[in-house]
Design a protein that fits this description.
Layout: E1 6-15, H1 16-29, E2 34-39, H2 46-60, E3 64-70, H3 79-87, E4 91-95, E5 116-119, E6 123-127, E7 144-145, E8 147-152, H4 155-165, E9 191-198, H5 206-217, E10 221-226, H6 233-244, E11 248-254, H7 260-267, H8 270-274, E12 279-283, E13 287-288, E14 291-295, E15 299-303, H9 309-313, E16 317-323, H10 325-342, E17 343-346, H11 356-370, H12 372-378, E18 385-391, E19 397-403
Parallel strand pairs: 2-3, 3-4, 7-13, 10-11, 11-12
Antiparallel strand pairs: 1-8, 1-9, 2-5, 4-18, 5-6, 6-8, 9-16, 10-14, 12-17, 14-15, 15-16, 18-19
Helix pairs in contact: 1-2, 2-3, 5-6
C-alpha cells in the first residue's frame, strides 16, 4: 500500500478528551456495518467503560467491531470487562502480549502505538489520545494535553485499507455500499490529506522523512509540539538549518513531565538548538502528550508519533499530514495560546553551567539514547504476534496466538 495525497477532505481538530471521546462515541453509535479501533491504552476506568458500552451496543445491532490493543500499553483486560464484548461478537486482539518475567513485563519495545478509529468508511479519527480518564481535565493535575482529528473524505478509505491490511485475518465481509458513502462525496471539504505510518518493514522512516521535508521547505515559521522529544541527527540539523536561514522555529515540550527521564533527554538538546536560534518553550499546565506541528500557512500534522527513538525507530505509528489553511490556523492559534499563556520560554541563562563534567555527561547520555534502538536490535529477536481473545465454555476469556508478520 502506497501513501497518496487525497483532495476533498474535511478535517476537524479535537482537543483533549472533552472533544475527542464524545465525537468517537457518537460515530460508533451511528455505525451501520464496521468499526475498526486501534489504541495503545484502554483502561477499565470511566472512559474505558463508556467505550465498552458503545462497542457492545454496536456489535449487538450487527456491526462488525474489531479492536487491536497493544500488549504493553493495555495490560490484559479483566474477564469481567471483556467477556461480554467477545460473546457479542467483538473481535479483540492484543499486539505482542509477552509473558512477564519475575513479575516484570518483557514487551518493552516495538509497541503498537497507533491510535486510529474508522467507522463505516465514513469517518476516521487519528491522533495521540488513548481511551483513559487521563485525557480529561477532571483527572486533575496529571491530566494530559493532547490532540486528534476527525476526518471525512477520500482519505478515510486509505486509513481503513491500511488498518485492515495489518490485521491477521485477510478474508473479510464485502460491504456492497462501499464507495458510495459520505467519505466519497466530492465536496466533503477543501483539505488535502495524506495518511502515513511507521512500521518495521518498508515504512521505517516515513514520518521522520515528512518532518524533514517540511523543515526544508519552510519559509516563514514552524511550530513543533511534541511530548517526547529526542530525535535523530538529521531532524536536529534540519531544525537548526531552518532557523539559521530566518525561519521562526518554535519547539513546545513538556515542562511538567509524566516521565522525568523524558525531560532530561530533551534538555540535553537545548543548548545545541538555542545557539542556532530555535525558540524552546516548556508547557507548564499539565503533561503535554500531543504530537502535532504546523508550518507556514498551510501544512500541519497530527498523529501518534513522538520524535524520540521509540517512535521513530521501533514503534508502529500513524500520522495524518494536512494541507489546509483553515485547519493550520486553528491548530496554530491553539499552540500560540499554550505558548503565550501556559509555557515558560527557555533561555541559555536557565541551562546548567558549562563544565567538563556536564559536557561529558551530555555527550555520553546523548549517544546512549540516540543509539538505543540499535542496542535493542542486539537482543534476541522474536516475531511479534497478534492474539485474539476467545471465550471459553466456562465464560472465561482466553487468547489464541497467531503470527503477525505485516507490521
Amino acid at each position: 500500500m502506497k501513501n497518496r495525497w487525497r483532495q476533498g477532505n474535511h478535517i476537524q481538530l479535537l482537543e483533549n478528551g472533552e472533544a475527542f471521546f464524545p465525537a468517537v462515541f457518537d460515530a460508533i453509535a451511528s455505525a451501520r456495518t464496521q468499526v475498526l479501533l486501534e489504541t495503545f491504552i484502554w483502561f477499565e476506568d470511566s472512559v474505558g467503560w463508556r467505550l465498552r458500552h458503545t462497542l457492545l451496543a454496536a456489535a449487538r445491532r450487527g456491526v462488525r467491531v474489531e479492536c487491536l490493543l497493544d500488549g504493553y500499553g493495555t495490560p490484559e483486560l479483566s474477564a469481567h470487562f471483556i467477556d461480554e464484548l467477545v460473546a457479542a461478537g467483538v473481535i479483540v486482539r492484543y499486539y505482542d502480549p509477552r509473558p512477564r518475567l519475575f513479575g516484570m513485563r518483557t514487551n518493552l519495545f516495538r509497541r503498537m502505538h497507533r491510535k486510529t478509529v474508522v467507522v463505516d468508511e465514513r469517518v476516521a479519527f487519528v491522533g495521540g489520545l488513548n481511551f483513559s480518564d487521563e485525557h480529561m481535565a477532571s483527572y486533575g493535575t496529571d491530566a494530559k494535553q493532547d490532540y486528534a482529528v476527525m476526518v471525512t473524505g477520500p482519505v478515510v478509505e486509505d486509513i481503513r485499507s491500511y488498518v485492515e491490511s495489518t490485521l491477521p485475518e485477510p478474508e473479510r465481509p464485502f460491504y456492497g455500499w462501499r464507495g458510495h458513502g459520505p467519505s466519497h462525496e466530492p465536496h466533503a471539504g477543501e483539505a488535502q490529506a495524506l495518511f502515513i505510518w511507521r512500521d518495521n518493514g518498508q515504512h521505517r522512516d516515513d514520518i521522520e522523512r515528512y518532518y524533514l521535508k517540511m523543515l526544508a521547505g519552510a519559509r516563514r515559521d514552524v511550530t513543533i509540539a511534541n511530548a517526547y522529544f529526542f530525535p535523530g541527527y538529521r531532524l536536529l540539523h534540519a531544525m537548526r538549518n531552518a532557523a539559521r536561514r530566518g525561519v521562526q522555529v518554535r519547539l513546545l515540550v513538556q515542562g511538567q513531565p509524566d516521565m522525568p527521564i523524558v525531560q532530561v533527554g530533551s534538555r540535553l538538546l537545548y543548548r545545541y538548538l538555542l545557539k542556532a536560534g530555535v525558540q524552546i518553550f516548556e508547557y507548564q499546565t499539565r503533561a503535554l502528550h500531543g504530537k502535532v506541528a504546523v508550518m507556514d500557512q498551510h501544512w500541519a500534522t497530527v498523529g501518534s508519533s513522538n520524535l524520540d527513538p521509540l517512535s521513530l525507530s521501533l514503534n508502529l505509528e500513524a500520522n495524518l499530514m494536512i494541507h489546509d489553511s483553515d485547519f493550520n490556523q486553528e491548530l496554530r492559534d491553539n499552540l500560540d495560546a499554550l505558548i503565550e499563556h501556559q509555557s515558560k520560554r527557555v533561555d541559555e541563562n536557565m541551562l546548567p553551567r558549562r563544565s567538563w563534567w556536564n559536557l561529558a555527561f551530555s555527550v555520553l547520555a546523548f549517544h546512549f539514547l540516540r543509539h538505543f534502538p540499535a542496542m535493542v536490535g542486539w537482543l534476541p529477536a522474536h516475531l511479534p504476534r497478534v492474539t485474539r481473545v476467545k471465550p471459553q465454555n466456562n465464560g472465561q476469556s482466553t487468547q489464541s496466538d497467531r503470527p503477525e508478520v505485516k507490521p
